[in-house]
Specification:
Structural class: alpha/beta
Number of helices: 6
Strand order of the largest sheet: 3-2-1-4-5-6-7
Strand content: 15-25%
Radius of gyration: 17 Å
Oligomer: single chain
Distance between the termini: 19 Å
């Protein structure tokens, strides 16, 4: 590709993972161009993060649409219109219609706060603690119609300490997420990570999740 990778992001929250991507770009570690940041919440912090960085934004209200599919088609249509090569779900908290997801096969990734396939969905830190795990982590995976079920690209791991709370885990893990997501996007931008009917890395099918040091 003789131009920067064009990246759009969707986020529902404060936008810390988006901020990590922007910071990596600004530091020269991530050769990408951000085309759009979208949200299902007009007051999402991620929109302010994007606007401060000069990235176009859009917020659509799901309540303005008769069905989830109509909303998803509208929002993802705006992403497509932005010319994005890659869509990053960076704290986007809605389940997306399967037919809409299918249009982005191999071109959309998500960051999730667990060591997938463990703890898909919500409350991952709580579930990790309740299970008595001694290890927790974050995963970046390709997005498929199955909730948090697409092929895992890479994972970051942290130890669970005695006395840890959900907030403790969340705070420590976020530091690792902010390294992991830019590293994966960077591997895609560099052509090292590709989708060829499944994830390929450095010219071979990806057999297991990568660690941060391998990216």
């Amino acid at each position: 590709m003789d131009r920067p990778l064009r990246v759009a992001a969707l986020a529902s929250g404060r936008g810390s993972n988006l901020a990590a991507l922007i910071a990596a770009r600004d530091a020269g570690r991530l050769p990408v161009e951000f085309t759009l940041v979208g949200s299902d919440k007009k007051l999402a912090g991620a929109l302010a993060v994007a606007a401060a960085a000069g990235i176009p934004t859009v917020a659509l209200n799901p309540k303005d649409y008769a069905t989830r599919a109509e909303f998803d088609n509208a929002l993802f249509g705006r992403v497509a219109d932005s010319g994005a090569d890659l869509l990053v779900l960076a704290g986007y908290m809605r389940i997306v219609d399967a037919a809409v997801v299918a249009q982005w096969e191999g071109r959309a990734i998500n960051v999730h706060p667990s060591l997938l396939p463990k703890y898909r969905g919500l409350h991952t830190h709580r579930r990790c603690l309740e299970a008595g795990d001694n290890e927790h982590g974050a995963s970046v995976h390709f997005v498929t119609a199955e909730l948090d079920g697409g092929p895992v690209i890479a994972q970051a791991r942290i130890s669970v300490h005695p006395g840890d709370t959900e907030d403790d885990l969340a705070a420590r893990l976020l530091v690792e997420e902010h390294k992991l997501l830019p590293a994966v996007v960077g591997a895609i931008a560099a052509g090292r990570l590709r989708w060829q009917g499944g994830p390929w890395f450095d010219g071979a099918p990806l057999k297991r999740p990568l660690s941060l040091t391998e990216l």
